């Protein structure tokens, strides 16, 4: 599944190496870091398709998290290279659903899967806003 997914248009890979400050008392990556990796990957994907935060600020609206779900499957350890693979699977009028697969390429092990439901909001006042067509076009929907 992972190799097939990586080849699809609209799927973005963010590379990361596990650092000492991400390791917990059980000698593996603390769960909160996986969540942080998903947000970092989402932001990097946005930048890669031409939507850095400065562009959202010009628009006067941006994405905020409504909900996260994550399933931890295997531990990552100090020094592991990981890929946080991400894609948009739904794009509604005011929301999107983004999925993630966190993989250790050395042995093709899926370490975690996750999804984030985002809502588009006006920066001033934090009220819901309609996702503009130019933003929709930047993120092709991947049905997986």
UniProtKB/TrEMBL annotation:
What are the record keywords, sorted?
A: Hydrolase
CDD domains attached here? 4HBT
Please, which domain of life does this record's source organism belong to?
Answer: Bacteria
GO MF terms here are:
fatty acyl-CoA hydrolase activity
InterPro entries, per database record:
4-hydroxybenzoyl-CoA_TE, HotDog_dom_sf
Similarity section: Belongs to the 4-hydroxybenzoyl-CoA thioesterase family.
What is this protein identified as? Acyl-CoA thioester hydrolase
Q: Which organism is it from?
A: Nannocystis exedens
């Amino acid at each position: 599944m992972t190799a097939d997914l990586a080849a699809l248009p609209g799927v973005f890979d963010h590379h990361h190496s596990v650092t000492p400050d991400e390791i917990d008392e059980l000698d593996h990556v603390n769960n909160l870091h996986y969540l942080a990796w998903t947000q970092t990957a989402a932001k990097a994907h946005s930048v890669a398709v031409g939507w850095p935060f400065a562009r959202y600020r010009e628009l006067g609206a941006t994405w905020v998290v409504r909900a996260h779900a994550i399933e931890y499957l295997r531990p990552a350890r100090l020094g592991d290279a990981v890929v946080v693979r991400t894609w948009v699977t739904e794009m509604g009028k005011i929301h999107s659903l983004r999925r993630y697969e966190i993989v250790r390429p050395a042995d093709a092990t899926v370490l975690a899967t996750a999804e984030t439901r985002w809502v588009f909001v006006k920066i001033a006042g934090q009220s819901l806003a309609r996702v503009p067509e130019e933003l929709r076009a930047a993120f092709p929907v991947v049905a997986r």
